[in-house]
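Researcher: Let's do a round of design. I'm pasting the structure tokens now; please hold your answer until I've finished.
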């Protein structure tokens, strides 16, 4: 029996392209930080799908997702959705880092240091 594809399914392609083309200012800022292996020499992909979810940024090598959270993530529905989503991703061995949009705007050095530390920890675990 063929294994079902979970990552970047073709049926999610149009939505992924739409999200890349219509991302938030914070997503554009984060992509400028992450692209071209600028953080800890780690490759990230933008708007990468896993199952039914589309991750803002994802490193397949390390199974590290970075999610940026706007106001809708802090409603009771948003918090519940994120909890279920993170539980699913965790079941696949994917670590999720979440940053509030404001933090990306105003505290980039802290965000970058947090990502670098997570990458170091994950790479240490791979050795």
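Researcher: That's everything. Go ahead.
Model: Designed sequence:
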């Amino acid at each position: 029996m063929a294994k079902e594809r979970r990552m970047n399914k073709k049926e999610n392609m149009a939505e992924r392209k739409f999200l890349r083309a219509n991302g938030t200012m914070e997503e554009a800022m984060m992509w400028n930080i992450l692209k071209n292996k600028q953080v800890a020499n780690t490759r990230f992909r933008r708007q990468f799908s896993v199952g039914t979810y589309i991750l803002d940024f994802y490193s397949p090598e390390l199974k590290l997702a970075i999610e940026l959270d706007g106001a809708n993530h802090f409603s009771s529905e948003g918090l519940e959705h994120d909890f279920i989503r993170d539980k699913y991703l965790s079941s696949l061995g994917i670590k999720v880092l979440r940053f509030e949009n404001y933090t990306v705007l105003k505290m980039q050095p802290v965000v970058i240091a947090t990502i670098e530390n997570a990458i170091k920890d994950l790479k240490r675990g791979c050795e």
